[in-house]
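Researcher: Good morning. I'm working through a list of sequences from a screen, and I'd like to move beyond sequence-only analysis. For each chain I'm collecting a predicted structure so we can compare shapes side by side. This is the next one on the list. No need for commentary yet; just the structure.
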Amino acid sequence: MSYCSLTDVQELTPKFTFNATSTPTQTQVESLITKIAVEIDAALEVQGITIPVTEPANFVAWLKNLNALGVAYRAMQGMFPSTAEKDSLPAWQTYRKDYREGLDAIRKGEMPASVTSSPASVGAYYTDSADQSAYPDPVFRKSSADKDF
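Model: Good morning. Structure tokens for this chain:
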């Protein structure tokens, strides 16, 4: 599932209309939307996030913008591969920077707590509770012989 649409990408590139005769074409940009979403989902899965992300709304909106940034940079990079004036950056390089920073944030786990896996209960670190069934398995187990970890 993609997080953005062609309209979202078009908002970032208002001077360029993607259609059947543009370069890249509308079909190519729509393909990029899917490819960038797959890249985002791969980063989310590494963090243990169930995909596609559907909540919280503010994180989904952030992913929508990240998806659109990735597509805008890739589409514009193809349109203008080497255009830059002295002391300036093409817009696609700015979009690429923002997109990569967003992916790095996901890879570092810098996401709202409401979308991350819930932390283990404090009880997970203790094994001498009378009712251990209420707690997840402990992080480390120690044998009665005091040798296995």
